[in-house]
From TrEMBL:
Residues 1-40 are annotated as: Disordered. It comes from the Eukaryota. This is LITAF domain-containing protein. Keywords: Membrane, Metal-binding, Zinc. One of its GO terms (molecular function) is zinc ion binding.
């Protein structure tokens, strides 16, 4: 009876310890080197095209913000300069406020609000107007 107990406990101990340690460390070492190479290659190729190609928009697509376009007058690639100007939406805003009872100058508030004014896109190179965005019709006229 006393001899059976040591025989049973001896085979249980050794098989649990060695196998997991050896196999885990070997697979971890094999996976580490390829990972940094793959991520570096993707980062470099993704950043390069963004710096080389600025987007140039046709004058017909200009809206409220300055944008890169080709000036039809001097044929240069320029970033437009925007200037706000009263238009149909501005006049309708003034009339609407006047009809609502804003009689003592309050109805002129739309004349100071860029969000209801037309936007002129000017060429910074030759100072001529490239396009005008009509806020009321939500369309751009090229001149
Ligand atoms: Zn120009």
């Amino acid at each position: 009876m006393p001899e059976k107990t040591p025989l049973n406990s001896t085979p249980v101990g050794p098989p649990n310890d060695p196998p997991p340690y050896t196999s885990t460390s070997a697979s971890t070492n094999a996976r580490v080197p390829p990972a940094p190479n793959t991520s570096n290659t993707m980062y470099g190729s993704a950043a390069a095209p963004c710096l080389l190609s600025p987007t140039i928009y046709p004058p017909e697509t200009l809206r409220t913000k300055p944008a890169n376009t080709i000036c039809p007058h001097c044929h240069q690639s320029v970033l437009t300069v925007t200037k706000n100007e009263g238009g149909t939406a501005t006049i309708l805003g003034v009339v609407a406020l006047y009809l609502c009872g804003w009689h003592h100058g309050g109805c002129l508030i739309p004349c100071c609000l860029p969000c209801v004014q037309d936007v002129n896109h000017l060429c910074p190179n030759c100072n001529t107007r490239i396009a005008k965005f009509d806020r009321f019709e939500q369309s751009t006229v090229v001149k």
